[in-house]
Design a protein that fits this description.
The chain contains four helices and five strands; from the N terminus they run E-H-H-E-E-E-H-E-H. With 156 residues, it is an alpha+beta fold. The chain has a single domain, classed as Gcn5-related N-acetyltransferase (GNAT) (Aminopeptidase, 3-Layer(aba) Sandwich), CATH 3.40.630.
Length: 156
């Protein structure tokens, strides 16, 4: 088993996270997707700003290099009588480099998200998993919702 560490991402990780986001989307949807360098610049700035504010992320490191990540955004709910859990956690941008899959990095990242949800009294964690990642989410405890509906919005 490859030794690795999982820790909260910092603004200083933004460049590495932007490069992994590029790699993730190239793997997820192969084909022309714009130019890499402008994307890296824009994504790095987005990550720096968001990691200082509404987003929390964790990274998995091997030999002090980031090889996986997961992001979480707190989504406020309208207050409800009888409960203090008034926030959902939106889990997204979960990725482990292919050469490090199957070594526990992904599971450890998701366990950190769950632990954060418990410590911060989140009501529910939600995710739209890929076919590839769904089984891992299930192993960590995620289940299919019984009441959720969705409506993808088409631009006018």
């Amino acid at each position: 088993m490859t030794p690795f560490t999982v820790r909260k991402a910092q603004a200083a990780d933004a460049v590495a996270l932007a490069h992994l986001r590029w790699r993730f989307k190239q793997e997820d949807e192969p084909g022309p997707r714009g130019e890499e360098e402008p994307f890296i610049r824009e994504c790095t700035e987005w990550m720096r700003v968001r990691l200082a504010g509404p987003w929390t992320a964790w990274v998995a490191e091997v030999d002090n290099e980031v090889h996986g990540h997961v992001f979480l955004n707190h989504v406020e709910k309208v207050p409800e009588p009888g409960t203090t859990a008034d926030t959902l956690g939106y889990v997204t941008n979960f990725y482990v480099c292919p050469e490090y899959r199957g070594r526990g990095l992904g599971k450890a990242l998701l366990e950190e998200v769950v632990r954060h949800g418990q410590q911060n009294r989140l009501d529910t964690l939600i995710v739209w998993p890929s076919e590839r990642s769904a089984s891992l989410y299930r192993r960590v405890g995620f289940t299919a919702p019984e009441e959720t509906l969705e409506l993808p919005i088409e631009p006018l």
